[in-house]
Design brief:
124 residues, mainly beta, four-stranded antiparallel beta sheet, 1 helix, 51% strand, rod-shaped
Length: 124
């Protein structure tokens, strides 16, 4: 009777350790970095938005309000410049990948004047 109990106990312990998930270097997604996507929302009728992510520059001509998606994988400083083609109120809102509002500004900008801002975007 004791031999059966000991055998059953050893079998249960072996089954317990065999069912545990072990981290493996063979996992194909172990070293993959997934990008985060943020949004720049600009509300204006006729303006130009240029923005810089790390060392990459992007430009967007906005005729009406527009949402501009940007991607990132680490903390960085988002630099924006808005050039208005006429005097108007312009709203610039920046959202990170979790939907948190980083900035929401309403500014009155004169024709031909550029408004430059920078925002710190965090991964977490």
């Amino acid at each position: 009777m004791n031999t059966r109990r000991i055998t059953f106990l050893i079998f249960c312990i072996a089954l317990l350790f065999a069912s545990c998930k072990k981290d493996s270097g063979l996992d194909p997604l172990s070293n993959v970095v997934f990008p985060k996507n943020g949004v720049i929302r600009i509300e204006c009728t006729d303006c130009a938005l240029t923005y810089t992510i790390l060392k990459d520059n992007f430009a967007v001509d906005v005729k009406n309000s527009e949402d501009v998606k940007f991607s990132y994988v680490s903390d960085f400083e988002l630099k924006t410049s808005i050039n208005s083609k006429k005097k108007q109120n312009i709203r610039l809102a920046v959202f990170d990948s979790y939907g948190r509002m980083v900035s929401n500004e309403l500014s009155s900008i004169e024709q031909g004047v550029s408004k430059i801002d920078s925002f710190n975007i965090k991964v977490n």
